[in-house]
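Fig. S4 source data, part A: sequence.
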Amino acid sequence: AYLNITGDNIDVVSGSGGNVSFLAGPDGTIGWGITDSDGSSATYDVRLTTNGDGNTELYSDVPISAPSFTSPSDRRIKKDFQPVDTADLLHRLQRVRITEYGYTDEWRAVRGIPDKRVRGVIAQELNEIFPEHISVLETYSLPDKGFQKTRFYRVDKQRLALDVIGGLQALHDRYSIGESTSSESGSLALTTKAAPSSGAIYLQTGRASSGESGDILVQSGAAASGNSGSISLMTSSKAKNKGDILLSTGSGVADGGCISLKAGDGENAGDVSLTATRGGVALTTGEAMNGDSGNGICVAVGDAVSGIAGDISLASGASLAGDGGRISVHAGDGGASGGRLDVNAGNGDIGGSIQFKAGDGRERGGTLTLCSGSGGEGTSGTFTIASAESSASGGILLATGTSVQGNSGDVSIATGDSAGSAGNIELCAGLATSGGGAVKVCSTGSSCGSGGSGEIIVASGQGDLGGHTSIRGSNLELVAGEATGGLGGAVDLHAGGGRKGGEIIIKAGRDDMELGGSVVVESGTSTGDVGGQVAITTASGKASGDVSISSGRAQTWGASGKIILATGDARDTVGTLSIQAGDSETGVGASVIFVAGDSAASQGGLLRLAAGDGASAGHISLNAGAGIDAAGGNLEIFSGTQLTRRAGKSGDVTIKSAKGTISSGDIEVSTSCVAEGASGDIFVSTGAGHCGSGGISLFVGSSLLGDAGNLVLGVGEASTASGGYGGSIGISGGGGNAGGAIRLRAGVGTARKGGDVELSAGTSDEGNGGSTTISAGDGSCGGSVLMT
């Protein structure tokens, strides 16, 4: 150990082996370190000195190891806060070059570090990008180690690291990773920054110098139980003009690239939909310089093993004010023959159909035109409509549509005009070994009504003498075909549609002498199961039509015809005859009215309801409707009223059981029992009258051989648990100038004693027995009580 004072320097060295040295220099430098000094001078690893700017700094030539470093960053010691353009930081960071290098022997001797390669930045390069993080010392001198450099560049890596955080924030604005939860991973959003014109996003693999360039795969993740995620390519709708989406393969020296749109396989295959909301959709193959222009454009849906294969739909855009878009299918032109256009439906147990339909219109529907090609100097092309050859060839139907208001369209088959001879029209049935086919010309629609029935016109052409036309036949027969295994053919009679639909009238022939012809509507029989049904219904509408069944009016003194509604007889269960009015959702349910016919000179018609006879006679049940939120419907029976004063009284109401061989049936008038509340009352009363009211008589029938029946007036009992009173019987005479009398009289006995009159009060098990009170009425002279 020694103390060395040389000029303005003071060196303190102590220790053995690795010496500890301490320096206090004339420029205010304080240094210390561990060195293998020979005693002549000392070197220092850490020194506190002033830099070229006059600022005090702490220099260390050896690595510093510490558990943490903290820097003063309290808001209260800061001022002049300004926002940072993190996007600028990100762009500058992208220009920073990270390189790998080693240190010179001179610097390694200063630092005391081994010769190894490290990664970092070059201060002179970083000065071009982040000059604010570069400081340059005019002279950097370590005299104890013999090191000195002028214009020495240094990097503030702490500030550079903070700018990296700012760059990450700017990157987050474009490449954002959402927070994850326990059930869902965070989302990933890749966007450019909003600006007057926002920037583009490029996904591109690197250029391949010799082999194939890399692929780009955009794929959603797999899902164990739900649906896999969707992939959407779309331009924003929040713009004046919508952006385009271009799918294009690169051009090749030999072959151009292909574009494939394929839906996923599955139990139900996915769809492929190409739709332009307003613009068009163009599918084109690339141009070929020498060979064929690709393999064409193939639009096909995948095969289905058991279900229905997917559809292909080609639709042009709709227009609110202008014309709708056009779909043009055009075969290519050729120097020899033009390309052929084939439209084929799929094969199957039942071949697929082909339908060409023009668009609907508010004023007029679109026109459907099928036209052969014109010939420049020769004939135009042939137009052929034919069903395919088969074991039984199919038919051809030419028909116009139904008209709702006006006339239905015409079917015109015409040859073109000609300067020479006009072409012929031939309607020919085919030849057959067993018999030639028939040619049928028939009209359709109504035979009577607001308009005439359709006409059949067979006319010869005009000339100097009009041609003769004759159509003759015998019976008019409409017969549908029979089927040995399936359903028999149907016969449909349809009147034409219009502002008022046409009528269908089925009318039998007239007979001037005896009976007119009958009209019979009968369903088909069945040898194995149930016969066919007969249904007469009106079509639905805003208000459905009426169904009227009536016999014709008798022209002279004869009787009009009967109407019989009856089900057929059967060995087992016969059919039910049901007459039921329709239900209503908001209004009153429809009524069922049975009205017998009136008579101007004799008795009105009889209305009779009779149950069927049988081993056990049928019942007649009249039930009023049940009420959901109100009381049940009433059951009212009224006799007929008189229309004139000379007719006398109104009709009687008689409820009477029929005679029986042993005894007649009972008549029971009662209200139903109820589980809660009180049962209904029974009122038997005559109506009030101007000159006198009607009486009420309760009579028991007489008996020739046995005892006459009893007349019992009894009221209900109240249960002991309820604590109520038994019902009372009240008999009172009517009031008037003289009060009405009440007479209780026993019957006269012709051979034995007369009947008894017994008045007794009720007994009581625990309380007092009831009283019997007979009292005369009060008055100017009180009434008497006479008992004999």
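Fig. S4 source data, part B ends here. Helices lie at 86-95, 105-111, 123-127, 157-174.
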